[in-house]
Design goal:
Blueprint: E1 7-11, H1 15-26, E2 30-34, E3 46-47, E4 56-57, H2 68-73, E5 83-85, E6 89-92, E7 98-100, H3 105-113, H4 117-141, H5 153-165, H6 170-182, H7 185-190, H8 196-207, H9 219-227, E8 240-242, H10 246-259, E9 263-265, E10 270-276, E11 279-285, E12 290-292, E13 295-298, H11 302-307, H12 317-325, E14 332-339, H13 353-356, E15 359-362, H14 366-377, E16 386-390, E17 405-412, H15 424-441, H16 445-448, E18 449-455, H17 457-462, E19 500-502, H18 516-537
Parallel strand pairs: 1-2, 1-13, 2-9, 6-15, 13-19
Antiparallel strand pairs: 3-4, 5-8, 6-7, 10-11, 11-12, 14-17, 14-18, 15-16, 16-17
Length: 538
């Protein structure tokens, strides 16, 4: 790095772009972040769709998997970052019963035993197995994937280093990881649990945010991905509500970047990433303004970066074809409501912080979830959608007036074609079915609603830049993971254009509000600059 730093332009002011900006600025770079919308955060925003009385996390609604190194190095707590740990699952059923999975092992065992004593015993084995895999898979999230298959000496060294790290798995552990990446969550759960209640509640984390039902191959890994968490005490699979909503996370990242010297510009849409002689030269805004930089970090969806911001003719043909085939299908609908009272569940009357402050799952069984997916595959919105529900205002009084609350419902599925064709009537009818499903287990919920916001795949793509409405910038499937994310040979956060790096959720470590792609991109940029510095000295 030169004595006076170096210029970096970050395209996209989502959380990953802001992480890269803050870390690079801290390392001496002159950084400018360009965000096309009027606020930073991407899908991690807090909005006021019904006026200043309620603060709503519009899309992404919980935080997890953000490495402590990001939180500590950027001093996010100093900038307002505070997370309330989330309680466990609560699954109410229409027959008046409910399954609760508290942290306490004895209470959890009693809850599961209501439905199956064998499942109660199996849960400990399940939890232990996941924990052992997380000890190995967790660190891989913060490891830059090697160029698997490359014969270049440096790449061979990287591959050998990965193999050495994985030696702890042994034969049985390697087999378990292979099964995890290839199995469906349904087949995996069949090996441990028999009751439809346990299978249903645990299957949700295998399909959340994906275009895949619980019987689809690869959904076992999606479940594991969501179980490798690190919030507060670093417990496996823990998740939390940020004070001020998800927008507060983005604001803390923005303020940290600015405190380290970065400039953050909103309402600054990029028209073109400028390339000459195979090297990035900066960007041109839609206004015509040009910003010169020898490093550009693209934190946008790869189809936007490589098919819109760069002339495809400047890229290798096989790379362009890979990006064109990159799948970002989704059938997710976010339903947010403001209510004048907390829902009261037939199975658990009254207020219970573990219930109302946890994840409320509406899924009677694994088959119940699969039917919802098959409805969407057949081209119709699910007749009985499943929902992953949180009420962050239970912990955070900044979100709603006293006595009132905001309820976040992450639901699936509608046809993935909804991303290109807007059907407001069908979407509203789908949201009605979601709310009716809540009302069936918490009578009076419908009457408690003061305001409603429905965000479907079309809005996610056209308003928030989530191509296909996919919250992960690409499907979490075996052929789009690790060294394949987003294209073979380019999972190391570099691109075919020298000086252009990737830091979107479509890269390794993406999939949730993690900041890991921004961390990886920073490390790769600094690694490359050190190499160039050594060459220039010789």
């Amino acid at each position: 790095m030169s004595a006076d730093g170096f210029d970096v332009v970050v395209v996209g002011g989502g959380h990953n772009g802001l992480v890269a900006a803050g870390l690079l600025a801290r390392r001496g770079a002159r950084v400018t972040v360009l965000e096309r919308r009027s606020q930073v955060g991407g899908a991690a925003t807090t909005e006021q769709p019904w006026g200043p009385e309620f603060n709503v996390t519009a899309l992404s609604y919980v935080v997890s998997l953000m490495p402590p190194t990001i939180v500590q190095e950027l001093e996010l707590a100093r900038h307002g970052y505070k997370v309330y740990p989330q309680h466990g699952y609560f699954a109410p059923y229409r027959d008046g019963r409910a399954l609760q999975l508290p942290d306490d092992p004895s209470r959890r065992r009693d809850q599961i035993a209501q439905f199956s004593k064998a499942d109660a015993e199996a849960y400990d084995r399940w939890d232990s197995w996941l924990g052992s895999l997380a000890d190995v898979l967790g660190p891989l999230l913060t490891t830059i994937p090697p160029r698997v298959g490359s014969r270049r000496p440096r790449d061979l060294v990287d591959q050998l280093q990965l193999a050495w790290r994985l030696r702890r798995l042994g034969v049985d552990g390697t087999a378990d990881v292979t099964r995890l990446f290839t199995m469906s969550i349904a087949d995996l759960l069949d090996e441990y649990f028999a009751s439809p209640q346990m299978q249903g509640v645990l299957a949700v984390s295998g399909v959340i945010g994906t275009w895949a039902g619980p019987r689809s191959a690869g959904t076992a890994y999606v479940m594991a991905h969501h179980k490798i968490g690190d919030v507060g005490e670093g417990q496996l699979g823990s998740w939390g509500f940020p004070e001020g909503g998800m927008g507060a996370v983005s604001r803390a990242l923005r303020d940290a970047a600015i405190a380290n010297g970065a400039t953050v510009r909103t309402d600054a849409p990029v028209a073109r990433i400028d390339v000459r002689d195979g090297r990035v030269r900066g960007v041109t805004l839609e206004s015509g303004e040009e910003l010169r930089a020898d490093v550009v970090v693209a934190a946008t969806h790869p189809k936007i970066t490589f098919l819109e911001h760069i002339e495809p003719a400047l890229l290798p043909t096989d790379f362009v074809e890979r990006i064109e085939r990159w799948r970002s299908r989704s059938g997710t609908v976010k339903v947010n409501v403001a209510v004048d009272r907390l829902p009261e569940f037939t199975a658990k009357p009254g207020y219970d912080p573990e219930v109302h402050g946890g994840t409320i799952v509406l899924a009677e069984s694994l088959d119940d979830i699969e039917r919802a997916f098959q409805d969407a595959v057949a081209g119709r919105a699910a007749g009985l959608p499943f929902a992953d529900i949180c009420i962050p205002s239970v912990f955070d009084p900044t979100l709603a007036p006293e006595g009132k609350h905001v309820v976040s419902m992450f639901t699936q599925w509608v046809p993935h074609t909804y991303a290109t064709t807007q059907d407001t009537a069908a979407l509203d009818a789908y949201a009605d079915r979601v709310i009716a499903r809540v009302d069936a287990v918490a009578p009076g919920f419908t009457d408690s609603i003061l305001h409603r916001q429905v965000i479907g795949p079309y809005e996610m793509e056209h308003e928030y830049g989530l191509v296909g409405g996919n919250i992960f910038h690409g499907e979490l499937s075996p052929d789009q993971m690790f060294h394949m994310r987003p294209a073979p040979g380019y999972a190391d956060f570099r691109t075919p254009i020298a000086g252009l790096y990737q830091a979107s959720s479509a890269t390794h470590g993406g999939g949730g509000v993690t900041g890991i792609p921004g961390l990886h991109a920073t490390r790769q940029i600094m690694r490359d600059r050190r190499k160039r510095g050594r060459r220039s000295r010789h």
